[in-house]
Each structure stands twice: as structure tokens, then as C-alpha cells.
Amino acid sequence: MITDPNKALLRKYFLGHCDPEEIKHVEDFVLNGTEKNLVDEVLMELSLGPELEHDNMSKAEIEASWQQFDKAIGPKTFKQANTRIKYYRIIGWLSGLAAACLLIFWFVVKDGSWSFQKEGDSEMRYQAAIGIPLTKYPLPDGSVMWLTAGSSVSLSAGFGDIDREVILQHGEAYFDVKRNEELAFIVRSKFITTRVLGTAFLVSDQPHLGQASVQVTRGRVEVQSGGKIFENLTIGKVVTYDKATEKADSTHYEKMLFDPEAKRLFIDDVSFEELAFRVKQVYGYELRSRSHRVTFGRFTLELDFDRGIGDVMENLSWVYNSSYEIKGKEVWMK
Question: Where is the FecR protein domain (predicted)?
């Protein structure tokens, strides 16, 4: 039999790592108003602690976990009048905490680029840390999002209740979407809009690269880009927008850009500029070239998140008949 949650289990719950049985147990425990001080203490450590070392969770992520928790137990309060006062004391404290720690932004388009401006309580931002190839985020509606290093995303404050709209400012995001027949899940980037009810797909839109794309990995997806609407896209389909021609086309892809489960990033027939960007993104090294052939070459390879830069460069130099030298955080290809 499961006993009353201790701090470890409550922390696990608010970080989104509980199994279904543990989730039900924690929500019933909190709804009964038992040991409210323990809940307060855990939330204080997670959201207001000076270092936020728990699973590399940001304050926005803690807020998202809290919103999911709030929605999970909220309806039950109307059925249990005897616990309502205790419940609202907890939610009142949490609301104050959320207001204190949440960074809210709204998007504008300026000089051809996307940017954030602080404005009231309209949106919530997720910023993936540099140096971590892939970061997982639970969303308030029960969906899951993975961001590559440096990628930036925002959600509206009413996400999951009023709408399910996501803005990808820049970078790559993989979404495993919880199905909701009433609220479409919409992802907007500068060049592509993707609409689904419940499926899995990957959006890539890096401002300095020549293409933006959407890859479908499960279910059906609708994509709008380049003045076209691509309907009923299924697994294996990709829509690619060419920024130079301002046109979009749909075709099949062989491998995903990145796979959250396999922890690999796949690049296909890319320039040295993009290769260097991906090496910096995954491994944190600046890739440079002293070879004309390398500088103007095309590259296809997988970057394994768990391998070191030396292993990757050994493979790269063997395939492309070149040598390399590592100096500090720089890698020179010759």
C-alpha cells in the first residue's frame, strides 16, 4: 500500500515523473488538505530556490506542471465542499507563487525577425539551455515538448483552457500532442503553421538556415506554408519551405532531424555552415575549416548526443578523407 507522499514523491510529481498510480495518490492526498505545509515546502524549493537544480527545470516548467496539477484536481473541489477551503488556500498560495516567478512575453515581428516584448500576463516562454542537446518539457495540457539547444518557444497564459497555440521563435521543437477534439494544437513559426488534434511532429525554423520544415512522425497533420495548405500529412511526410524562393513543397523523408528517444540528430546533404552549426549545437565546439574542399562540401551524418566530439570527428574525417585538430573549444578540419 502507498503511504502518504514524502517530499521526494511530491517533488517527483511536480517535475512530471510520476506514474498514473502515483499521480492519483498525490492528487487525492493534496485534495484532502493533509500536510499542506509539506506541499508548500516542496513548491518553494522547486520554484523559489536559488539554484533550481531539480532536473534542470526552469520556473516556466514548474508553472506548467502546476497548471496541469490545478486542472487535474480542480473539478473535484466542487464535489467535496468540506475540503474546498483547504484547497483554495493551497491554490491561492500557488497563484501568488506563479505570479512571482513567471516570465510573461508577447511576440512582435520587427525588422524581419521574431522577438519578445514583456507585456502583462499574455504568454509564457520556454528557452532551452545552450550546451544541452535536447531538453524535455511537460506542457499544461498533458502534451510533451522537446527543444534542441538554444531553441525558444512561448505559450499563451490560457494554454489548454482557451487555446493550444505555440509560437516557435527559433530553433527546433518536437511535440507529442495529447489529443483534444475541441482544441486544436497549433504551432506557428515565422514561415510555417502546423495544426493537429493529437499526434507527433517536429518543427524546424532556424533564422540563419535556408529552410524551415515540419516532419510528421504519427497521426495526421495540416501545414500551411508558402501560400499553400498541405492537408492530411501522415508519418514519413515532410513539408519544406525554401526561404530564398518563398515556396513550400511536400515529400517523404528518410530520417527525422532529431529523435528524442534515440538521442541523435540527423543531417542530410547540408553545407559546411550548417554542419558547423549542428556541431556547436550538440557538442559545444566551434567547427572551422582550412580546406577549400571541406568548406564547399556537402555533408550527411548522424550526431549522437552520447558520443564525444573526438568520436564524431574521427568518423567525419574518415568519411570525407580529411584530418582534424582540436584546440580548446575549436575543431579545425584540414
Answer: 138-222
Q: Give the model's confidence band at 253: pLDDT under 50 very low, under 70 low, under 90 confident, else very high.
A: very high
Helix (H, G, I), strand (E, B) or coil at 51: coil
Q: What are the angstrom distances between the C-alpha of 169 and each of 49, 128, 166, 205, 239? A: 28, 12, 9, 8, 18
Count of positions (residues) in the chain: 334
* Domain boundary assignment for the chain: 5-71, 124-255, 264-333
Query: Is there a common fold for 124-255 and 264-333?
Result: no
Cβ-count burial 203-215 (b if 16+ within 10 Å, e if not): bbbbeebebbbbb
Per residue in 200-215, pLDDT (tens digit) is 999 999 998 999 999 9
DSSP state of 269: E
With respect to CATH, is domain 124-255 assigned 2.60.120.1440? yes
pLDDT tens profile 98-137: 433 333 333 333 333 343 333 444 678 999 987 788 999 9
State the architecture of 264-333 in CATH terms: 3-Layer(bab) Sandwich (3.55)
For the entire predicted model, the pTM comes to 0.63
